[in-house]
Specification:
single chain; about 230 residues; alpha+beta; Protein Transport Mog1p, Chain A; 2 domains; seven-stranded antiparallel beta sheet; 7 strands
């Protein structure tokens, strides 16, 4: 039998160590500097934009809605001269000051003006609303449609509409920014027991009443800003 050869003159053979000892973990690789810079810039930009947006909201809240120079008016009759309609309707007989309130969100005042004799009068009803918070546009459109104000009037406020009611009168509504003005003109006639109209004198011709109403509305809108 052939035996394994012996190593002559050498040290006894030792088993070699296995070179598989565990290495220390490497520290995590850092993000590239340009990525950190980009991320920081984006965060700073977002914070800056949020700050500007918040500042804008605060400033808008502090300044409130732009009322375009319009102011609350307690006695609407005092600033409503209605000279043009007076030329058609006759002598101004009496005024009636309506309710008035002025709140942070809304102010409103009203007035009634009568022309002519007691038994046969023409009445003009005025209503002025100043919307201090909300946009009155959609509500204005909806109400005007319901009350059949369909005839547009050019050159008066932001939007003006008229409803011609013939010899019975007419209605004109005006929207100018946050201000809303309504002018309703109608005829008051008293009748006797036989159903005949009372009062002397002919009834005013109300055809084309939208022209003097427009003139008076322009003058009144200017007065509401003083």
């Amino acid at each position: 039998m052939i035996s394994e050869p012996e190593l002559v003159g050498g040290a006894p053979f030792e088993t070699a160590e296995v070179l598989t000892e565990e290495r220390e973990p490497r520290p995590p690789r850092g993000r590239r500097p340009w990525l950190w810079g980009l991320g920081g810039a984006l965060v700073a930009s977002a914070l800056w934009g949020a700050g500007l947006y918040t500042y804008g909201l605060v400033q808008q809240r502090d300044e409130g809605v732009d009322l375009g120079g319009y102011k609350p008016v307690e006695n609407l009759c005092e600033v409503s001269e209605l000279k043009a309609m007076g030329m058609v309707l006759g002598k101004r007989a009496e005024d009636g000051v309506g309710p008035y309130f002025d709140e942070p969100a809304l102010s409103e005042s009203s007035c009634s003006v009568n022309y002519g004799e007691e038994d046969r009068q023409q009445s003009v009803q005025l209503s002025y609303t100043l919307h201090k918070v909300t946009d009155p546009g959609p509500e204005f459109e909806a109400r005007a449609k319901y009350f059949e104000l369909t005839q547009p009037i050019a050159g008066l406020g932001e939007k003006a509409l008229f409803n011609d009611q013939g010899e019975a009168g007419g209605a004109m509504w005006v929207l100018d920014g946050q201000a809303e003005l309504r002018i309703d003109m109608y005829v008051n006639v008293s009748y006797d027991e036989q159903g005949r109209p009372m009062g002397d004198g002919p009834q005013p011709d109300l055809s084309g009443i939208d022209v003097p109403m427009t003139q008076d509305a322009l003058a009144l809108l200017a007065a509401l800003k003083k």
